[in-house]
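sorry for the late reply, my laptop died twice this morning and i had to redo everyting from scratch. anyway the thing you sent over, i finally got around to it. pasting the sequence first so we're on the same page, its 468 residues, then the predicted structure underneath. double check i copied it right bc i was rushing
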Amino acid sequence: MSKEKSKGQALKEKLFYDPKHAAEMISDAEIKKADKFCEEYKKFLDCSKTEREAVKYVEAKAIKNGFKVFDREKKYKAGDKVYVNNRGKSIILAVIGKKSLKEGTRLSAAHIDSPRLDLKPNPLYEDSDLALFKTHYYGGIKKYQWTAIPLSLHGVIVKKDGTSVEINIGEDENDPQFVVTDLLPHLGYEQAKRTLGDGIKGEELNILIGSRPFKDDEASEKVKLNVLNILNQKYGVTEADFLSAELEAVPAFKATDIGFDRSMIGAYGHDDRVCAYPAAEAIFDIKNPEYTAITILTDKEEIGSDGNTGLNSSYFKYFVADLAWTQGINYHTVLSNTQCLSADVNAAFDPTFPDVSERRNASFANKGVVITKYTGARGKSGTSDASAEYMGKIRKMLDDNKIVWQTGELGKVDAGGGGTVAMYLAALDIDVVDLGVPVLSMHAPFEVISKLDLYMAYRAFKTFFEDK
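ok and here's the structure:
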């Protein structure tokens, strides 16, 4: 016979806020569903290491799921599926709802760019019989983490004649890989005197790409010449073509299970593809929503969301205006009545480094999807700060549908902070709050997330789109 709960214990369970481990809140059958969902996510990560590759993957899957290129001259009916590919680096997916756009849309917005090493416009040089690439790091990184790890090279080179060449070197097992070298400890005494942040300087993030010379007694810079000759023979490019290229060096690691229990996934680029993937999958899986459902997968978040593929530009607003025009509605009305989940990650509490977090208001791996009411730095600068009313609505939605969730802040008040795209959507008069997955080792070349948290994010976005 089970022991009956004491009055105090029963009251505590009723009144206290105490998030539980997701595995204790869901059935074994649902855990198996989560694990299966994550297998496809790992495949997505391995073939979507840049924003261009993520858009290419999502567009192909959208077409397979019946999405058509959006035509502003066409009238759409409930259930129609459309998409807009913005310059190959961001994408909008939409399923037309039964209700008029006057009543707004249900919107999720995630970013698909991640911290990395970009090649400089004139990157290739030779020194001491070694050929190297100069880089300019992109986004917030700890520079020392990017040395002595295998790197792959991704991107596009646009040649003088206007043709483009896609580059993906280092992912296939037969490909060469690349590396940023570092000092051995025996000779690193002076380097060790630097602060951790300056242990490796930006101009020291040089990628080793070759060491054999071109066989010609008269030519100079023979190693550089040999590398360029290889590139010219394979891709038809010259050194000047680097001036019109976007090439990104990223970790060559494959996504893999972490832990004896395989409960977590380690990979490059969880921030923020761990939210982009479930947001896209959710919109692929809905059929006839009441409200028009929209997923945006956007670029440039890691550097402020500026540029014409970042969410601080007008491409999303223009899409809504064109969509509203098909129903004869002012787009301001659509935006003002739209509700949004800004799909972005939070920093999971790390027991090895507890001092940067305020435990009562931190998010934890395996306690479900995390709602982040505000981000920002210190005095809440650079955030939208969701309203109590909207927090209440989302909270009710999650509870009513038995989705495991928690809340979290991005570290202690004075410890730093961060930002998301939420504030740019709030600036359009949209109700918005951040909802995403807690991440360990965020912005490192190899990040870690919980499989159950990812699955809860998918369930949250799908439920949100199906809201009546």
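Residues 28-46 form the longest helix (19 residues).
thats about all i looked at so far, will dig more tmrw
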